[in-house]
């Protein structure tokens, strides 16, 4: 745009309106909305008359930067120029006012329009939906003389945004001509409102599916924590072959691999992405760093990071947090320095990784210094996660008194994660008094979590206080709660298999327990004796 502006300013004769409009459009496409308004002011000063293509661009720019006073001035210019009845100008005015919450002013413009086409009706109805006024939106919808598929989809989307899937589905079923976008709208509605079963049923009913249909179902599974289903649907998509995955699909699949620890499948997605034109895609590369880090192959994550031509804040945050999570604190801190040298400004997520790195290295004072820098140098308001990192930093270093003092000075109440960190540190440093305080708080916050009783029971057991162990077991039994058994996920034959401790339901339990007995026998031959009391208490 800088070059375009230089050429524009050097035109010897006054530019015609087409050239002005080209400049307005260029600035708007580059999101330089303030420059659009400045240039429009310059144009008025030269007495150049705008046309019907000028006003929509300028009014839309006013809406983008909430410049509603300037928008009213532009409206006055449009009226004086004889564009009051122009449907393009009127529709853009409706969008601008409705976007700013001035729905009454938007309706006034709508009422003054001589020629109200379906686009104008859609804009006005969208304005009411934006202001959560579904009654007025539906009233206008019922009055609309013409309804195209966009208007129908807009109304259905309005119900979905308010969480009323019953009304959305009823209106969807009444649609005379439903395109794939209509089906996708309802599909995403079910997914976003947590009704995965309805989402699945609708997907199977669809007469036609495109990439957004598949991403809607796969993304719905991911948002609702059904990562096994994400992988199965992704495989089905590849097998059917009618629609190929795009970068959004691959990012969701990699996210599921991260959550399931499905390293082999994640590597396959990596190879698929590179061989199908997605090498260098920022979103996929960020997801790959996350996947490799969470699957335990931090070296691969670093290799992806180093090979990237372009990095954004998410890239830096992902690698710093991944390396810190693996205990490579000094490397994480070095990357933080590289990040700042590269001109990237850290955010709250960055500092979670930095504080985590300090925790792994036992750098108490450095961690506290970074915490202060976050507030003083970057004006970041600490969240509960940052306070949790600091409490964990003090607690792991054995500074339990300083940790509890920090908790008392926090501007918000400590959550279960913070008290659990303190309880875990109490076991290491044999602090029964603080452990009992932490358990009392955890019972208030998580009355149905038996793991907290188990943790304190382990502390009593370490100190040989068996009466207290028995007392806690009775208390846990009286709650009627049972600790969830340990769960493991492993990859076998390109699938992720889930099984539980003492699992009798698995179809191959005989083979599994046979292998386990063989491993136990081998361990004993090396004189390894497991801590059975610990295993029993830990679940």
Automatic annotation (TrEMBL):
Origin, by domain of life? Eukaryota
Q: Which InterPro entries match?
A: E_motif (IPR046848), PPR_At4g14850-like_plant (IPR046960), PPR_rpt (IPR002885), TPR-like_helical_dom_sf (IPR011990)
Q: Which SUPFAM superfamilies match?
A: TPR-like (SSF48452)
PPR repeats sit at 16-50, 148-178, 179-213, 312-346
Q: Which PROSITE patterns match?
A: PPR
- Entry's Gene Ontology BP terms: RNA modification
Which GO molecular function annotation, any one, does this entry have? Answer: RNA binding
Keyword list (alphabetical) reads: Repeat
**Name of protein:** Chlororespiratory reduction 4
